[in-house]
Amino acid sequence: MSFFEKNKTYLKLGVISGIMFALVMVAFDYFMGRQFSILKFALHFVLFGFFNAYMAYRKVKKEEAKRNK
Question: What is residue 27's predicted lDDT score, i.e. its pLDDT?
């Protein structure tokens, strides 16, 4: 089984949560009168998405370890 097939759920979660967070932050910047920054958008998307996907992965692994004991 390839990496993508095994972790498809985590990748989807990371992409969706990253985009949603980045869009919320863009809207917040817009209403505060700040200019749009593609670098800031990309950093929010990547960092928040990676963090959420990693935390979900850790949670599932911890639950599987508890279940297998």
Answer: 96
For the chain, the domain total comes to 1
Please check whether residue 15 is in contact with residue 52, taking contact to mean a CB–CB distance below 8 angstroms. Answer: no
Classified as helix, coil or strand, 42 is helix
Secondary structure class of 2 (helix, strand, coil): coil
CA atoms of 35 and 26, how far apart (whole Å): 9
Q: Provide the b/e sequence for 43-66 (b: ≥16 CB within 10 Å).
A: ebbeebbeebbeeeeeeeeeeeee
* Whether pLDDT at 69 is above 90: no
**CA 40 to CA 18: how far, in whole Å?**
12
Q: How confident is the model at residue 60 (pLDDT cuts 50, 70, 90)?
A: confident
Tell me which residue range forms the domain holding 48. Answer: 1-66
